[in-house]
Specification:
With 104 residues, this protein is an all-alpha fold. It has helices spanning 2-22, 33-43, 55-74, 79-103. The protein has two domains: 1-31; 32-104, no CATH class. The protein has four helices and no strands.
Length: 104
């Protein structure tokens, strides 16, 4: 139960920071962030089939996702294609993980 309490607390803090950044509260502002969270964890090295990950790997994955979003925004790629690109990065990361599992 404590994990849920901590997760709710961190989600609330994240919401306050996001509202402070945008100067407004919108009910649909966080739609699509779950894809970024999954992508960060998978790129960080956690297996989707029940593996263990590290905090450092997840932070590195989040940094990579942030750089990808920033780079795609600077190249003026539409939001639809950004999501498609991030999704393909997840698919590639899962594919590499499966190849690594079979080889080990």
């Amino acid at each position: 139960m404590m994990v849920y309490v901590i997760a709710g607390l961190l989600a609330g803090i994240g919401a306050v920071v996001y509202i402070a950044r945008l100067d407004s509260a919108q009910p649909q502002a966080g739609i699509g962030f779950e894809l970024d969270a999954i992508a960060a964890v998978v790129i960080g090295g956690t297996s989707l089939s029940g593996g263990q990950g590290t905090i450092l790997g997840t932070l590195l994955g989040a940094l990579i996702i942030g750089v990808l979003h920033n780079g795609l925004n600077l190249m003026e790629v539409s939001a639809f294609w950004q999501q498609a690109f991030i999704g393909s990065v997840i698919i590639i990361a899962v594919f590499v993980d499966q190849l690594r599992k079979r080889g080990a």
